[in-house]
Amino acid sequence: MNEKQMFAERLKNAMKTAGYDVRSSVLEREFNLRYWGKPITYQAVRRWLRGDSIPSQEKLQVLAHWLAIDPHQLRYGDGGQLAVKEPLAVWGTSPSNEERQLLALYRSLPIEQRKLVHEVMETFAKAYATKERSDN
After folding, report:
1. Where are the domains of the chain?
2. CB atoms within 10 A of CB 50
3. How many CA within 13 A on the CB side of residue 31?
4. Is 1-90 in CATH node 1.10.260.40?
5. Tell me: the pLDDT tens digits for 45-74?
6. Which has fewest Cβ within 10 Å: 28, 74, 76, 96?
């Protein structure tokens, strides 16, 4: 087994361990939700899972953070520790039509506007969490 195929096996195992179906469509969606650069294509993630290519270091970092695994272990597989820094978010239900529309609009924005929207949402979330604590 060559280096690319071994990476593909580690990626598949990390997805399974994190509770995701090992499918190109799942990897594409979850990766693009977390990556601030140009969205990756279905074909690119398919090549990762087939062992035809290995993502760049920047993309590898995003994958590792999402899958709660040490980037070095994901890339090279030599016994790195699991890097669980926060609980994995699992959607209990499928996104609503409104949520899908918002996500589509968000993805259509240029990267700088995406970052701004992200900051605004984080600010609202923090303010709401503070308000909830003070109400209790």
Report:
1. 1-90, 95-136
2. 12
3. 27
4. yes
5. 999 999 999 999 999 999 999 998 999 999
6. 96
